[in-house]
Queue: 2 jobs
Job 1
Amino acid sequence: MMVLRLCIYKLRAQFYGLTHGAFFLIFFIFSSLLIGCQTSSLIEIRIIDFEYENIEITSGTTVRWINGDDKSHTVTEGNPPISGEWGSPFIATGDQFEYQFKKPGSFDYWCRVHPFMTGTIRVIDN
Ligand SMILES: [Cu+2]
């Protein structure tokens, strides 16, 4: 009776071990897929020497502007002096701003501190 009970416990332990193993395998597959998706949809732009870049991305991509300059800047949708729907506050040296482009189109942006700084993000369908 004692031996039988031990065997049942062992079987149970093996069963749970198996289900946990399967669960973790599925979890790792999905999480790695998710991480893969996220890294492919983030583009970084470094602001250096008063320059803004013109780039083309697919919809759903998040663009991150990192201020590598010694002056504060903004990333503001539109064309000077008109601001559009989205924009950053002042981005100090070393700080960053992120925006996800969900819809296709051409989006001009500029800096409210230095209106001659302009750029365009072209978003094509994913
Ligand atoms: Cu600026």
Job 2
Amino acid sequence: MTIPPTHLTSAPGIAYDTYRPWTNWGGNQTATPAFTVRPRNDEETIAAVRFAIREGLAVRAAGSGHSFTPLVATGGLLIDLSGNTGITGTDKARRRVRAKAGTPIHAFGDRIWADGLALKNQGDIDKQSITGALSTGTHGSGIGLGSLSSELRWVRLINGHGDVVEICEDQFDRLRAAQVALGTLGIFLEVELEVAEAYWLQETITYPTWDETASTWDHDIDNNRHYSFLWCQAEESAPLYELPTPDSQSMVNRSYTKRYNAVHLNEAPTTSHTEGARRDRSYRIYPGGFMLPFHELEYYVPRENSLPAVEALQNLIRTRHSDQKYPIEVRWVQQDDGYLSPFYKRDTTSLSVSGAPGTHYFPYLRDVDALLSDFNGRAHWGKLHFLTRSRLEALYPEFDAFLAVRREFDPHGIFLNDHTRALLA
Ligand SMILES: Cc1cc2nc3c(=O)[nH]c(=O)nc-3n(C[C@H](O)[C@H](O)[C@H](O)COP(=O)(O)OP(=O)(O)OC[C@H]3O[C@@H](n4cnc5c(N)ncnc54)[C@H](O)[C@@H]3O)c2cc1C
């Protein structure tokens, strides 16, 4: 792999917007930064951060704005990374890919397949920027597959001193902090991920009753590369997440289950577009995006506790929140060792629920939070949650180790906003 050296030039002229409103995908977070810049290359990003340091402005980065939490909001300088994208190198022998920080996940597919490589796993959409996804621990499903963050092997960033630095694989503390950093170490310019040899996937969609879903619990988790399901409490549930369902089949108390298993390249696969039984290159099996907005919370419990946790959540919906119609999505993620990774040293089951935009869903989400706290639940950093500093300290054994790296990289806190300062100052 040829990695070009870093050339720092003097600050080029950069176009700044002033007081341009910013809104996230879900429409529940807005901000009016004093300055917004959309760099076209690393030099412009570096110049923008140094400008902010000189002027005493706080700085936040925006990926594709798919987080529901106030991670991006700032009144200072907003750096929109969507203009600095592209795969910068691949190394098939080491199964590595480097990409500019703003590269969307969907841009990896065809490009790295051509070099015999593929992302090991993907989530429910591929619209996020790679660094936005890394920064919050974004994941797909599969008990043998880690989050995207767990695949981070190298990063080049500009820190709070205005210095461009690299974090390499032998810098364990820094790399483990960088894996899930919420934009608080600095602005990432380029990242390197470990990926897989190119592979095909076979999809199998089924619609079991809840009793059937529960009866094959461990078997399904352990015997599928990707296993996940969405449990529907009401007839209205499936359409809210645009789930295709069989004609004349009630989905009440049934699951829409997804199983994706690898088909080896030497088995000469043929593509199938049959709904529920597709066979294709890995990245074409994963969904692209959602058209309908929703506001989501996703909590993570240890795999061992997961069936009782899901049944307790179903009971909460039936007894106290029957007006809430979005399905419960259930997925699995392999443990890793990122300091702020929700999967830190525990194989995890994820449970997610959503509220309808414009409705009063917070009492429901608060009850879900209280319920899953009893299961030692951690939370998706990019989805609605109620974690406080003291709860984080109890949930993350290496919380202080993360803070030490954050303070080293950004001693004056220029990369903090109100949300992250309360949690991570
Ligand atoms: C419809 C939908 C589906 C989703 N599906 C999944 C899923 O399947 N699995 C899952 O785990 N999550 C999922 N999410 C959540 C989503 O993946 C995360 O919120 C992710 O962080 C969004 O990426 P983004 O590019 O939009 O980043 P943003 O939301 O724009 O930013 C996220 C964080 O990254 C930081 N950041 C961005 N770029 C940089 C940079 N260059 N340097 C430093 N920091 C940076 C930001 O400052 C912020 O802290 C979904 C969200 C939506 C709306």
